[in-house]
Amino acid sequence: MDNSQPNPQPILPMDISQIMAILPHRYPFLLIDRVVEMEREKRIVVLKNVTMNEEFFVGHFPGYPIMPGVLVIEAMAQAGGILMLSEGENRTTKLLLFTGIESAKFRRGVTPGDQLRLEVDVLKWSHRGGTMQGKAFVDGKLACECVISCQLVPRPGAPKPEQKG
Length: 165
What we know:
15% helix; globular; Thiol Ester Dehydrase, Chain A; six-stranded antiparallel beta sheet; mainly beta
């Protein structure tokens, strides 16, 4: 086995336990169920199973449940977060925060029973953040797309990495 690469490509598919080891999000805000494809620093494809048990359906909308578009975008951002945080050292000391959302377009509603396929492609990448193009599909049809910008910041209260002296 070649150990020369500091962060080897994770074994796919990546299940919820592996996702939770990377992302800090937890119920009810963890919006990713499985990673099915990932190419380091380039692309990630994840799945989100949408169920009637999601808390937001209580009020959005009674009798006509639709997943809020902002949560579809959040799911894309979490997918990008998996891609970026799987690269970094000391990921438990970092958070990935939104810095911008551009060109958001909502093409169709997402409802209970749908499976979202979220495809996120890196447009710009650095050790401090990046810009990604996200697309959400239901049954092969585009439901939402946008460009997401993000930045890695220190996690409040996290221990600082030891400095080599």
